From TrEMBL:
The keyword DNA damage does not apply. Heterotetramer of two alpha and two beta chains arranged as a dimer of alpha/beta heterodimers. This is beta-aspartyl-peptidase. InterPro entries: Ntn_hydrolases_N, Peptidase_T2. GO terms for biological process: proteolysis. Its EC number is 3.4.19.5.
Amino acid sequence: MGGWAIAVHGGAGVDPNLPLERQQQAKALLTRCLNLGISALRSSLPAIDVVELVVRELETDPLFNSGRGSALTEKGTVEMEASIMDGNGRRCGAVSGITAVKNPISLARLVMDKSPHSYLAFSGAEEFAKQQGVEMVGNDYFVTEDNVGMLKLAKEAKAILFDYRIPLESTCGAAAESPIQMNGLPISIYAPETVGCVVVDGEGRCAAATSTGGLMNKMTGRIGDSPIIGAGTYACEVCGVSCTGEGEAILRGTLARDVAALMEYKGLGLQEAVDHVVQKRLDQGKAGLIAVSNKGEVAYGFNCVGMFRGFATEDGFMEVGIWD
Ligand code: ASP
């Protein structure tokens, strides 16, 4: 066993013109979350508790696209989604269409622990949340001024956006030349900011968690990769994986499960499996992922401009980055 390891992400596909101040805010938040995870691991918390704890923190801060600060639907509402998986026993829980639960990741955890099911959505999920007594808040809590502005820009550009992308013909000169498209629609250079955390604890147990508001200006009812076990999130005995980027591309590539499958069936190492999946299973420019192995390794890969990310391992290694 190689000791504990933790990785966090705050979304893939960063706008290359992202203001320095925002880059610094993102790095500070990732560092704070890593430190939170590190102290939990030092106190011997199991991997599943650590991923939930860290993602709750990311959901509570409005900076990234999850919980407070979630991307908005075409109607200006929030429909959040999240999933969590414990590699120890391959248990999982997921939720979609969440409008009023302060921390969707904890609702996903309750689905895993306290319901007979793995995945609850929309009104049924919120009814379950009420029964479980989780903290509920009004729509205003989630909707930030930044996101209202971004939705307006997205509508003007007739584009479905990853959070904080700057639409074509808007303020970002580079974006106007961008040939990037999603499902045939032009989109800008972008900065999706879904969050995720993967952990292997000191006993070699892996876990993964992902939480998001989805895509800016998405259709109501749209479900992306983040709550889908095997696409946006996966954990088993050998690894934990969390993805971010264009959900439709991640779903097509079953990215998270493919990393695990390459390790389980082909005996690939963690970074090798991640590289293979990013190069062979993912359309260019679409997404990225973070991963840990039961040997205490961390790995990541992305094929877009950048990915907000941070890593730490028990031997003292720690790194936070955005660009390649
Ligand atoms: N994967 C998320 C989705 O498609 C977006 C993101 O990662 O930012 O909903």
